[in-house]
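Lab notebook, design round three. We kept the backbone fixed and only want residue identities now. Task for the bench partner: fill in a sequence for the structure below.
Input structure tokens:
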């Protein structure tokens, strides 16, 4: 799992950091499971019905754009999926070893994974059985878009990659800010096979990217490749939407702590703290402590908190002026 080093400069900012950490453990929302490979793909299998955990999957073949992926309850969502690059799917030398075309229904029972360790991604042998990789021509990057996301949510992506005798033992999974794939948002690495024994595939580890904000167009642009530029592998993944918690000082919920939040504090001073959208100090009354909280966090984006920032904090009159001035002053197809 990817580790984040958080270095807030203000003691009060620890409250914001604690809220951000909760993105990975609370406020759980809609979850989708993707199986790469399908009945229609080479040496592949689809997940049929609910898995051993009672969850439903979408099995992804090549060459298609899939709209309205289902969630784990088999309910259609607004999320769409499409590859942006040529890809290949297979099961050979995956968790089931040297599989044979036409014998997938038998070979799937040879799939060797630690289902408990993999959690939701271990609920189906068919999902772990096959994988998607690059076409074997340079560059080997596999790219796809997750479209139709909710811009008000944050997304946790969990990747399971597993393959034997790989040229690159490690696969790097990355998210970029647009379809040029030039500006990296975040990345994480996973060993798809043992670093010493190439015949030993990954059977119990996943990689996670946590708290991702949808980019322009409510899309996440995902890329993976071997760490040294050879083939990377992805067998299954989960997509989980989580609520964005209130950030201390962000009284209007616009994900920035600025003069507009002071206006809300000023207009509701001595009133019910519910007017601060859960971003106050929790006393129940809008008071000076809420103002102090705003001052401590002023100038910082609410996402991601924990990254130090330096900003000039205006006095209340200057903040009021700011508020007044603000008032007067080759990819997959996309859904329209």
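Proposed sequence:
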């Amino acid at each position: 799992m990817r580790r984040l080093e958080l270095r807030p400069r203000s003691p009060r900012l620890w409250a914001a950091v604690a809220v951000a950490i909760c993105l990975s453990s609370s406020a759980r929302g809609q979850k989708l499971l993707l199986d790469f490979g399908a009945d229609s793909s080479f040496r592949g299998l689809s997940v049929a019905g609910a898995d051993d955990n009672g969850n439903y999957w979408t099995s992804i073949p090549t060459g298609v754009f899939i709209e309205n992926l289902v969630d784990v309850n088999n309910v259609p969502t607004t999320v769409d999926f499409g590859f942006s690059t040529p890809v290949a799917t297979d099961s050979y030398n995956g968790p089931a070893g040297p599989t044979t075309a036409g014998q997938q229904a038998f070979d799937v029972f040879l799939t060797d994974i630690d289902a408990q360790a993999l959690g939701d991604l271990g609920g189906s042998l068919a999902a772990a059985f096959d994988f998607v990789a690059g076409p074997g021509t340079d560059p080997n990057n596999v790219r796809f878009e997750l479209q139709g996301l909710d811009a008000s949510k944050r997304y946790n992506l969990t990747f399971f990659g597993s393959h034997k005798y790989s040229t690159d033992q490690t696969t790097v999974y990355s998210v970029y800010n647009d379809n040029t794939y030039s500006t990296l948002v975040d990345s994480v690495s996973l060993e798809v096979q043992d670093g010493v024994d190439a015949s030993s595939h990954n059977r119990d580890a996943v990689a996670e990217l946590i708290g991702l904000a949808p980019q322009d167009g409510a899309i996440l642009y995902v890329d993976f490749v071997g760490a040294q530029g050879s083939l990377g592998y992805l067998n299954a993944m989960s997509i989980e939407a989580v609520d964005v918690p209130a950030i201390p000082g962000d009284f209007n919920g616009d994900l920035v702590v600025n003069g507009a939040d002071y206006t809300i504090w000023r207009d509701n001073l001595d009133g019910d703290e519910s007017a601060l959208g859960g971003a106050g100090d929790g006393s129940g009354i809008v008071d000076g402590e809420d103002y102090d909280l705003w001052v401590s966090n002023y100038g910082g984006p609410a996402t991601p908190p924990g990254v130090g920032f330096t900003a000039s904090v205006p006095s209340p009159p200057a903040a009021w002026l700011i508020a007044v001035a603000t008032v007067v002053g080759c990819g997959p197809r996309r859904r329209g």
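Keep this in mind before ordering anything: The CA atoms of residues 169 and 193 lie 5 Å apart.
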